[in-house]
Amino acid sequence: MSRTFRVILVGLNGRSIERDVMFLATVNPEDLSPMRISLTGPEHDRQREAVSTPKARNYEGQTHISGTYFFSRSGRRVIYESRLEHLRLQLADLDSASLQVATQPFALLIRDETDDTVYSHVPDILLSRRGRPRLLVDVRPWAFQSDPHSRLAFQATREACALVGFDYEVWGEPPVVQAYNVQFLSGFRRAPLRFETIAPLVLDAVGTSATDLSLEEIESLVDRPYLTRPVLLHLIWRGDLQLDLTLPLSSASLVTPGPLFPGERRSDT
Question: Is the pTM of this model over 0.85?
Fold first, then answer.
C-alpha cells in the first residue's frame, strides 16, 4: 500500500498549520499545543478542523480519566487523556534522557494513494531525548491494539516516523510491579528537604563502595538517616542512582550508579 503524509499542528497561540510530514523534524515539542480533530459540515462533505485542547476535557459519561501532569524534566504541565497515558508520562519523566514532551502533539493526515482516501490519526506523546532520536508514542491498552483500525493507524504512523527519523512505539500496560514502582517514585520527583546537604553524602557512600548497597545500608552510612530516604528516592528519579524496577521495592533493594551519576565509582580493586 502506497501512502503519503501531511501533518496538522496547533501552536501555543491556538493557530493551526498544515505542512508536509518532514516539517516535524524541525518542531520543538514545547511549541505545540495539545489538539484533536473535529469533523464539521454536512455528512456528505465532512471537513477536518484542528481544535486546540489546552485543558483536560471532562464530561458526563466519560469512560476514561483525564488530567494534568507536571513533567519534571522540562518543568512543563501537560494534559493526559487516560490513566494509562499518565503512567507512560511518568515512565518518560523517570528516563534521564528525556528533555521535552508534548501530548496529542499533531494530527497525521494519511493519504492512501491506491484509492485517494484520506484519514487522520492523533498520536499521544512526542518526546525529545538526549543523544537519541525523538520518540513518538501511541498509548493503547493491549486488548485494543489488534483491531483493524488501530493496526492500520499504527502501521501508517510507523511509516511516517521512519521518513522523519523518529523512533515509534505502541505502548500498553507494563508489568504490575513496574507500574507500582514508577508511580511510587514519581512522588519524589521534587527535591526534598535538605537535599543539597544530604545528596553529596549519599552519592559519596555509593561512589566509595566496591559493592552495590541496599537502601537501608546507604541510610546507615549517612549522618542523618531520617532525612536520607526521600533524598535517595529523588536521586533515583533524577537518574543519579538507579535500581531494578522489575522487582518490588523494599529497604533491601540494591542501588547502583545511574546514567547521571557524577564521576565514577571508586573501588579497592
Answer: yes
